[in-house]
Amino acid sequence: MLKVKEGQYPLTNSPFYGILRPSKSVGSTVSRAVLFVFLCFRHITMNHKEEGFGMAEGNAVERIVLTPEGKEKLERELNELKTVRRVEIAKEIENARSFGDLTENAEYDEAKNAQGRMESRIRELEDMLRNAEVVEQSKQKDGKVGMGSVVTVFDMEYGEVDTYTIVGATEADMKALKVSTESPIGKALMGASVGDTVDVPTPGGIIQLRIDKIN
Which residues of the chain are modeled with pLDDT < 50? Predict the structure, then answer.
């Protein structure tokens, strides 16, 4: 796995990671904090516009790129929420009602809050699946890294071998070495072939990875 040298910071999918890093200057740290908040707000606003939230047109829909495994995982979660959790929370609400006055009923409030969170997640999953674009490795160009590819690379600086799986943003898990096409590593690997050496930008400099195998 890519190591973090002194002065470097971990790779994440966030385009803002690394702004809030340690600094000897208090003023510099405060400036970074203000910039971080501004960029986060701008990022969220832009995402909402892309998804058509609050827009007059209401036609812009963000496509969610998923592997078949990622789509199946989301479908399992959605089914679990609809068939199991809905029933469980309904029983919790009914049980809380039996305690009497709802104005000071903490159990009822918590159950209703849990219901709200669950229904919000259900809508989110339904939207993601409705707008999902499932990409299978077999559809990628021969010999090229694409969505779903399992890529074995050699870290030219540390002399280590790692195997990354290219996935959609919703499936990314750096601990499992699943990197999204939007991450620095994913972007660098996409479209590359066996034998290629790609440059991965990091806050501390460029890391080079040689592609040894693509599955």
Answer: 6-59
